Amino acid sequence: MRGTKAARSVAAKIGMALGTLLFAVVVNFFLFRMLPGDPAKAFAPRGRNSDPGALREIRERMGLDESLWVQFGKYVKSLVQGDLGVSWSQHAPVTEVIAGRIWPTVLLSGTSLLLAAGIGFWLGARQGWRRGSRFDKITSSTALSLYSVPEWLLGLVLLVVLAKADFVPADGGMSSSRTELPYWIDLLRHMALPVLVLTVVYIAEYSMIMRSSILDERHADYLTTARAKGLRDALVLRRHALPNALLPSMTLFFLSLGFVISGAITVETVFSWPGLGRLTYDALRGPDVPLLQGLFLVFSAGVILMNLVADLLVPILDPRVGRS
Length: 324
Hints:
mainly alpha, MetI-like fold, 14 helices, 75% helix, flat, transport
């Protein structure tokens, strides 16, 4: 009986995720067709963007001469076959263009996420355990101040201060000219500034959640019992308080994994990082509608998948959630 109820719950969550993905497909298609500008004029050969015959020929090639519903039907049919279309700006299949840019974004955003979560959990635990202390006041106010700064603004400030002083490269994923440095050292030097920006901005998300969880647990009876047994304060925090306070933070971590693929458009643009964020910025300038549709579908699918994983894992990590 309990197994049947759990199976129904899992099926309902998967169905809800598929419904959300279907909604995202519909929104993605119609949203980008509302963008201002004529793609035929934007992608016409130089000197021919005022030639009515040439523009009509380009619209036919792009499929823009057909009604919106016919275009939507063809889009859904191609999507079912795993075909995201051909990029108007790069003249290559959208799947190949996205596949070529996805790993730089995962590397950049994934590294930042792990650093922000690790530092944020550590800070939040100490802040909550020592509430009102000088450490709590200084680190909490600093983290919240950095969280309120736009990523692109912090990136520009660091570019001016550090990159101008030749501490680290200012842009790109690798050096364009030959360098004697090993591949991975050159890569780390280029990653340093964008990773730093994304990490310091998002530390507050994790530290505040962990701080709040520790504050809820701080005066629990089982911790008083642990102290009465003579355990050191640090041991009480590490062995007893932290495991019970981790669940909200782990939920946030899994939800954030969905944004690892979407990356950070403004940070990748500021640092010319060759990932999906920079690709999105370039596609918006067209607008390259097939590429934008493909990108936002991948972003949406990543977030929906990670939400589903978090939804399924939480009752396993804390059975009280499943029983409620």
